[in-house]
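Lecture 7 notes. Example A: sequence first, then its structure tokens.
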Amino acid sequence: MTRSPPAGPAWAGSLMGTSIAATLSLMHGLVWPGLALLAVASVLLPVFAVGWLRHRNPGFTQEFMGPWGMVSMGVMALGSAWTAATDLLAPQLLAWLIGLPLAVVVCLWQLRRFSGAPSFPWGLAVVSPMVAATSGGQLALQLDGPGAQVIPAIALGCFALSLVTGLPLFARIYAARPRIPASFAGTAWIPLGIVGQSTAAAHVLLDAPFAHTYGLVMAALGVPMIAYAAWHFWGRAVRTWAEYSPGWWGSTFPAGTLSLGAAYLGWEQVSATFLGLLLTHWALCAARFAIRHRR
């Protein structure tokens, strides 16, 4: 049995997935499940922080920008979940102020070099500014004063940075036909993060007609990507109950962004369907974790 990495950034995918599951559950009226997921996510963040302070694994070095990108996205997703639960803007704003600079740094640093053979975790750092773009756009819609002008400009820059670098990067990875171990099959969902997240970002940052058209284009691109990801995750990891790794959690946050993007497009039933998929993926990941670590 392969030894799992210690608590820290490598596991931040679980923070991302749990936080967006909480937000979307609350959005769709699943109050108690949403609050329960929020409680779990709120415990995960300090556990991972303490774990990293203890083990310093991975270090904040160029080859580990993917996990640190997950940290930035996880922090922002948790802040958004707390705002969804309390209607207070402060948690999302604080999380954005922390997650935004980290997202930009890890993205730019990742773009300097990619280590090893092409793989979907390459895109984790590149997607992180898109989460900052969505969160910034949401904040700008609710703020007055100078922030209402400055934040959208920053968020739009993050949108462009992630889109311009992310699309060709994922195209290159798909073209390379990466060999994905079954325990990391959940990472095949990662490219869909930019599909759903950029659709949401477009709706809070751009004119409505353009944003809607953009969302339709992304939805069309997403259909074969969903089929590819589902074949890998369900057909290989779930069907064979593959060895547990942080890669399982790669199946959660992207499914959540698809639900969020569909909601902004006005496709409520589609959004609810993707929320069901997200919760199913979350339950599978949690169950696999429990079985992996039972005594």
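Example B, a different protein, same format:
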Amino acid sequence: MNYWLHRISHHAELSYPLLETGYLSIGFSDMINNEIIDKVLSNDWDYFNELFQMTWRSIPKTRFNLWNFLKMAKGDLVIVPSWGTFFVCQIKEERPVKIGDAYFDGLKTWQGKPVTRHEDRLISESGNIFDLGFAWRVNVLHEHIPRDKFADSKLTSRMKIRQTNANITDIKDSIECSIDNYKNNKPIHLHSKLIEKTANIVLDTIRVELNPDKFEKLVKIYFLAIGANEVSIPPKNERDKVGDADIVAVFEHIKLIIYTQVKFQNGELNEWGTSQVLDYKTNMESIDDGYNKVAWVVTSGESFSVEAKRLATENGVQLINGLEFSKMLLNAGIKLLDSDL
């Protein structure tokens, strides 16, 4: 049995309702056919690469996400991260199916909008095709397990990886321990309780003592504390700039750049910040410099709008509210809070 991490990265508004009914899905709707399933299950890597070359005119790194997904097997355990929680699912069939085979009468999106099927594809109420190609029939063993209470440091760290999926069998002991703790209602006491109780104090202090510029500087200090080699603030009036990022953090050793929008405010943050940093990241991805590029939105506020969450889920943007950022500060080390803001 293998252990997998699989992130809902396409059409959350439909993928989560499918998961709740026992289907774990992935994108790649332009690859739909039974032959690709047969070829991957028989380890035909040449066919797999040739299909991408023929369909996309390239052989992208993201193809590994589809390969991993189709290579899951009956009995495998799958961890599915969600907003501050995670699901535990188990593959229940011998092979995956085309997404059309996961359709059932009455299927609806999060917003209650009906979904129909046309041949092998699922269609929205407005006639658009959902970019979902394949699914596994799963048993949802546990749902909405709080990360900060039951996921230890190894599992928590692994759930932060940005790719859609990965084989995480190497931390199976950590996974099983986290599941057992949840089943027996034994949260990770000291760490989770200290963080949970202290984070609200940190957040209240941030809101009272800081201003937008100082909060932006605090985010910059956080990136330096967790190992960024360089952290810069792009010019606000940068010529020909597309989108916007308040902070650019470069992690040289792992070839990673994080573009971050920083919002000092209370309440709910709408999709504007998410859209701005996504546009900035998308524009910067045209530069072939060998770095992986991801986008964050950090706010001192309480939450994000439904539209912001949808946009972030569909495009891999990390949304971090004030309480979550306060926990990140505490996990990074209390000494960084001594910095002169």
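Note on Example B: Residues 137 and 244 are 40 Å apart (CA to CA). The first helix runs from residue 12 to 20.
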